[in-house]
Specification:
Radius of gyration: 29 Å
Largest sheet: 9 strands, mixed
Shape: elongated
Structural class: alpha/beta
Oligomer: single chain
Mean pLDDT: 79
Length: about 700
């Protein structure tokens, strides 16, 4: 069980009784010696940069780090949640912070966060009611790869007011904004820390801030808080001493040692399921009960409950001044400090707000196994290093664990359809593999879009797993929208954003070509993906070329492909024409279409008839999916030639024709596949092993 080593950023702002702020620099933070290991946490002072004078003009310079962000997790085995720190680690390290001797609030940066990527933005973590600053301990490793993390530590004995804490954080924000004016500053606040973040943002509307509010304290449940206050007022002041003297319950005693050993045993065994995790956490809390008691003595709890009321009142009066973009992460099972009506009000009041509910999490979600904050930031496209999120340069590839999660999520579909992947070599031979696909970009894959995009998961996932080719799909902008009272849960589109989806636009296509990416493009778009009865395998491409000349500018290769099999897994029984005849469904379809927007608005062809709806499907006993990637069309050296619109149109029509030929080939050849249907495939795997590759038709 590793322990966190810390390096100091700088000590900040000791607040006197007269509210005068002075600079504080800490020389060291003592660490305890355990029976197994001895650690020392050194804290060095670094003088902060003071804000500039109000006069004068600062020249904005282009950031040298504004390039595509390399995947920081490509070699990280620790990108798995079972290797992250646990509640036991939090309590173990909090023990040293509780006994740090007091002093004013100060910043520290965990050494495990030191390897952040070049150009990473600053992340300031503002703690909840515990005040230790260790609330992100389970997330330090992953977040530390993409952020420069500073954590605020508020000692147990500190009595700095809410107002002065806001000033302390504000000083740091202004100082760092002056030092790096072109990068955003992230404020991650939990509970009362979220109130601090909102107040700082309200006081500094002109500073580029991004707020992540975890279980923001929006109100105090009087039904729970009044009995707690009453109990605290009648308790004697020396409860920690009484427990130690009367019951002999001290850190390091045989009883706590036994509980600690049990907690470690559960952690080592990696007991799966909710039961194993609950038992492990129960033993961890029991073993560190003296730490918890010293973390929340009576005087501190009374002080923080009063400060909490002040914080909520201050936020409610200042929230209309907040201009920062905000990501709110409310827990589904927090009934004490969280009010769902307040979250709805916040989401309507804050100008750029995303709410992502943590349905299965409780009071302290950051310490729970099921929450991965780095992944949530990726899924909400909330990571940026400049003035706005760039879907190309700010994208971070999924970790190996996240990729495996995506494959496991679609495992049932993969097993049901047993996909057959075919590609074409340079000599024209067809092989059953991805061998014929170019390794180096830029490459544009153009093909047929199945109903609801069922072909995407097997194709994108297997290509990344087997060839390490990462397809960046040009996607309808509705995937990235967060609309109040939307009929669609944005979490439905998580997989597209995690796997690198990019809003379709000419500029984004140009950027992807410039970065030599492998780009997945469906010219038929929504009209093809939401086709109607009898339109299986029909292409709805625009009449004029839209991508050939841009691709030729970068010498790209165009890979046409076809895919068949949707008619073997379901029938469309209720399409958009049918739903228009049902008043309720008609209204829902029209609202969804309006919310999503029509990228082909004004197009008088069938392509402009883009209804957004959920088709009624009746499943069949699943057949098989077949993919066929044709021979690449090389555009290298043809930029001047393809400036001619007619020449570009010829290449465009050639690509469309080859997609149609790929579809026709697969429809013909699948008739001779003895394993097209589910039962023969199951019998084959039963006799040859469930992991064996199932044969197909002769090539």
């Amino acid at each position: 069980m590793g322990f966190t080593l810390l390096r100091s950023i700088f000590g900040l702002c000791a607040v006197s009784s007269s509210s005068r702020v002075t600079d504080f620099y800490s020389s060291n933070l003592r660490r305890r010696t355990s029976a197994s290991k001895q650690q020392l946490t050194a804290i060095k002072s670094v003088t902060s940069t003071h804000p500039p004078p109000s006069r004068g003009i600062r020249r904005r310079r282009k950031n040298k780090d504004d390039k595509v962000l390399d995947n920081p997790y490509s070699k990280m085995e620790m990108a798995r949640p079972d290797l992250r720190k646990s509640l036991s680690d939090f309590l173990e390290e909090a023990r040293d912070f509780v006994g740090d001797g007091g002093g004013p609030p100060r910043w520290f940066s965990p050494l495990e966060c030191r390897a952040h990527a070049q150009g990473s933005p600053l992340l300031l973590f503002l703690p909840g009611i515990d005040g230790t600053g260790l609330g992100l301990i389970r997330h330090h490793k992953k977040l530390g790869e993409i952020f420069d993390i500073w954590c605020l530590h508020i000692p147990v004995s500190d009595r700095t007011s809410f107002k002065d804490l806001v000033k302390l954080i504000e000083r740091t924000v202004k100082s760092e904004n002056y030092r790096l004016p072109n990068r955003p500053i992230y404020l991650v606040g939990e509970s009362i820390g979220a109130c601090l973040a909102l107040d700082v943002a309200a006081r500094n509307p002109n500073i580029d801030l991004s707020l992540i509010l975890v279980n923001p304290a929006t109100h105090v449940n009087n039904f729970m808080s009044k009995p707690l206050l009453g109990m605290l007022n009648v308790l004697p002041d020396g409860i920690p001493t009484l427990l130690e003297d009367v019951f002999g319950f001290k850190q390091g005693d045989p009883l706590t040692g036994m509980l600690d050993a049990l907690s470690n045993e559960f952690s080592v065994q990696r007991m799966g399921g909710v039961g194993g995790g609950m038992l492990r956490d129960l033993f961890a809390v029991s073993a560190n009960l003296p730490t918890l008691i010293r973390m929340f003595p009576k005087e501190t709890l009374l002080w923080k409950l009063e400060m909490l009321k002040c914080a909520i009142s201050s936020v409610n009066s200042h929230i209309y001044s907040v201009r920062a973009e905000t990501l709110i992460l409310p827990s589904g099972r927090d009934q004490w400090l969280l009010n769902e009506e307040d979250i709805v009000r916040y989401s309507r009041t804050l100008p750029k707000c995303i709410v992502r509910k943590l349905d299965d999490n409780g009071q302290f979600p950051l310490l729970e196994d099921s929450l991965d904050l780095a992944t949530i930031i990726k899924l909400t496209c909330f990571y940026r290093r400049g003035k706005s999120h760039d879907y190309i340069s700010d994208y971070i590839k999924p970790t190996p664990f996240e990729l495996q999660q995506q494959l496991d999520e679609h495992r049932l579909l993969m097993d049901a359809i047993s996909p057959v992947m075919l590609s074409t070599l340079e000599d024209g031979r067809i092989v059953r593999s991805f061998e014929g696909l170019p390794s180096e970009g830029p490459v544009v894959y153009v093909g047929y879009h199945m109903i609801l995009g069922f072909e995407l998961a097997p194709m994108v996932g297997l290509l990344l797993k087997e060839r390490n080719i990462h397809m960046r799909g040009l996607t309808h902008p509705m995937v990235f929208m967060y609309i109040q009272d939307s009929l669609v849960d944005p979490k439905m589109f998580d997989k597209y954003k995690l796997m690198g989806g990019v809003p379709v636009s000419n500029m984004n296509f140009y950027k992807l070509m410039r970065e030599k990416s492998h780009v997945l493009l469906y010219p038929g778009g929504v009209r093809e993906a939401l086709h109607r009865k009898g339109e299986e395998y029909k292409l709805f491409w625009p009449e004029q070329s839209e991508f050939v000349r841009v691709a030729s500018k970068f010498g790209a290769k165009i890979v046409p492909f076809g895919v068949v099999g949707e008619d073997d897994i379901f029938n469309i029984v209720l399409d958009s024409n049918d739903q228009r005849n049902i008043p309720i469904l008609k209204d829902l379809m029209e609202k969804a279409t309006k919310d999503a927007g029509n990228l082909r608005e004004g197009d008088e062809s069938e392509l402009g008839n883009q209804d957004c709806y959920i088709p009624g499907l009746v499943p069949k006993i699943p057949g098989r999916f077949y993919y066929y990637f044709g021979k690449p069309i090389d555009l290298a050296g043809k930029e001047k030639e393809l400036k001619d619109k007619e020449k570009a149109q010829e290449v465009y029509l050639q690509a469309k024709s080859e997609v149609e030929e790929c579809i026709a080939y697969l429809k013909m050849k699948r008739e001779s596949d003895p394993y097209r249907h589910l039962l023969p495939r199951m019998l084959y795997q039963a006799s040859h092993g469930w992991s064996s590759e199932i044969p197909t038709f002769d090539l």
